[in-house]
Specification:
By secondary structure, the protein is an alpha+beta fold. The protein folds into two domains: 4-201, Chloramphenicol Acetyltransferase, CATH 3.30.559.10; 216-460, Chloramphenicol Acetyltransferase, CATH 3.30.559.30. It is 35% helix and 23% strand. The chain has a six-stranded mixed β-sheet, with helices on both faces. Strands 9-16-15-12-10-11 form a six-stranded mixed β-sheet, sandwiched between helices. Strands 1-2-4-5 form a four-stranded mixed β-sheet, with no helix packed on it.
Amino acid sequence: MGERIASLGLLRVSGHRGVTAGRVDRVSTGDIMQITSDVGPVPMQIGACLLLDASGFDPAAFGRHIAARILAVPRMRQVLVRTPPGCGRPVWVDDPAFDVRDHVRQQRCPAPGDQRALLGLVADTVTARLPVSRPPWAAIVVSGLTGHAAALIVVLHHMLADGIGGLAVLASLADGAADGPLTALPDGFPVPPPSPGALAADAWAARLRSLRRLPSALEAIRRSAAELGGRVPARAPQCSLNRPTGPRRRIAVVTADLDSVRALAHRHGGTVNDVMLAAIAGGLGRLLASRGESLPELVVSVPVSARASATTRQLGNQAGVMPVTIPTGGGLRDRLERTVAVTRARKGPAPGASAVLLGAAFRFLAWSGMFRWFINHQHLVHTFITNVRGPAERLRVGGATVTAVIPVTVATGNVTVSFGVLSYAGTLALTVITDPAQLPDLDVLTGALRQELARCASEARPP
């Protein structure tokens, strides 16, 4: 296929004479932002752990089921390649050396019956950098858990999919999914990459379209700035939540009843995400108080998707971010009311618009060699919170019932703790992801979060 360009983790495209080349499938500006961001000690990867309940679980047979399902997802068979000069952004092409056995493996839980051991394995899996020479994903079938339980860990590089796209990949694994299993690679695989001439023509056509859309570009920039909170983002007050992080991560999970959270949100005119923001801010406020710090407000970065759903043929990243300032003190109800007011005022008509300015800024910082310094010294946000709506009903995968789904999103730079939230079958799973060297008091935070989420049930009851 070509030589490896280690600095970018991409490959160089070369043409195939005498063969009809495939269509041009370029990465989006959101994908470029994820590639640019991958400069820290932990890779920009996302993952999920599916807890399974199955009697007589056969790890080998289950692994074959996962492999057959994933074979049916075209993007999971592709690699990202860099184009020749003047030929536009990188493109996705079929990997001629693709072998699903390179991606799906089995492993026994190091300590059956100990959830911390499983969560440690999840953290190690998601933070282990995926090889750049293969499609950027992996799946681990975990056996040896207590009783009939097993687990499936799936990890994707963030350039392959955002949170909603990742859900589409997980849904494709379910029994009865629209994309049926494949026992072999489809006929015609691999489709040859586009020729340099086709890439150049496509790139120039895209540039001409951009020129025609120039009058609307200024409006797009205005919407992007509005979602980011203005032309000059406010500086987040300094606290111990912002310290340079290392390569290790630790995970804890706190759960809540989805109906209670939803009822509380609706009572105050907000959303489930508003409740989670208010609860997490309260938990972080108590963590800081235990350290002798007082911070009345926190700046939280919240991803904003430009789409409500995705399919396995519509992966990639279509999201921006919305920094919001959330109070840490007072009761849950008071914090929620203030949070609802803040988020309602910040939401615009074009969700995800901030990607326009963020992408340009990230590319400039990467070009100048300052991006890693920037993320290690930024004082724009204290933490990241990602919230994705999962399936309302329990899924079955390979004949096993999925009893729970644990989301994992990894932050880098000087953000010592981040949060992933996922609803599944009536339960909200709140995953806390930390650098253990910078946040050794994780138990204080999880205890505070459990109390905050327990209040959701009592606050949701009619007066």
